TrEMBL record:
Keywords: Cytoplasm, Cytoskeleton. The keyword DNA-binding does not apply. This is Tropomodulin. The lineage of its organism: Eukaryota, Metazoa, Ecdysozoa, Arthropoda, Crustacea. InterPro entries: LRR_dom_sf, TMOD. One of its GO terms (cellular component) is myofibril. It comes from Petrolisthes manimaculis. It is found in: Cytoplasm, Cytoskeleton.
Length: 207
């Protein structure tokens, strides 16, 4: 297993970890976004509580955990939650210590719910995934109809082209569904006409 020493990046983050985890655990409806980037003193116990709470959370849509020292030993809690969470749209796990096989495990978990739209997993300790891992990831991504953006570097052209093609297909479908939804909402019921388009009916005095 790769080491769990976070990469040093001198960017501060004043997020109160305990308070944020408490809100996440209680499914605070006001918490839509959560940023833990560059917080390097999160204990394994807090990681576990944080990641497990995602399973039942129904309000958080954006979670960023870049450069926090996340590694493979934290993945069981994370992947379990990803297979149950249906509201998270963006997940940023860049600049951590996740192994290539760990990346595959995360991507496999996303296939269970088909709700996450963007995931960022670039800049891990092992910068080269290898052909076998890249092809596995390509097959997994091609089976996911919800992903619109994947932050990963693919070295091999076949994998890169297939992933790009599939994400574009998902994006086109997403846009079509959004346009269809808007058109449907505009045609429900009869809209009120502006005054200059309304008709005035005059009755004959003899009637």
């Amino acid at each position: 297993m790769l080491g769990c020493i976070p990469m040093i990046i001198n960017l501060s983050n004043d997020t109160n970890v305990d308070e944020a985890i408490n809100k996440l655990t209680n499914d605070d409806p006001m918490m839509k976004e959560l940023n833990f980037n560059n917080i390097r003193n999160i204990s394994d116990e807090k990681f576990s509580t944080l990641l497990q709470s995602l399973s039942e959370n129904r309000h958080l849509e954006f979670l960023s955990m870049s450069n926090v020292g996340l590694c493979d030993r934290h993945l069981p809690d994370l992947t379990h939650s990803l297979t149950n969470n249906t509201t998270l749209k963006t997940l940023n796990l860049e600049t951590n210590n996740i192994s290539p096989s760990g990346i595959v495990t995360i991507m496999e978990a996303l296939v269970k719910t088909h709700t996450l739209e963007e995931i960022r997993l670039a800049n891990q300790r092992s910068s080269v995934l290898g052909n076998k891992i890249e092809m596995s990831l390509t097959t997994i991504i091609e089976s996911n109809p919800s992903l619109l953006r994947v932050g990963l570097h693919f070295e091999f052209n076949d994998a890169r082209n297939r992933v790009s093609k599939h994400l574009q297909k998902n994006l086109d479908t997403f846009r079509q569904q959004r346009v269809g939804h808007k058109m449907k909402s505009c045609t429900v019921g009869y809209p009120l006409l502006p005054p200059f388009m309304s008709l005035t009916v005059h009755q004959d005095e003899d009637d």
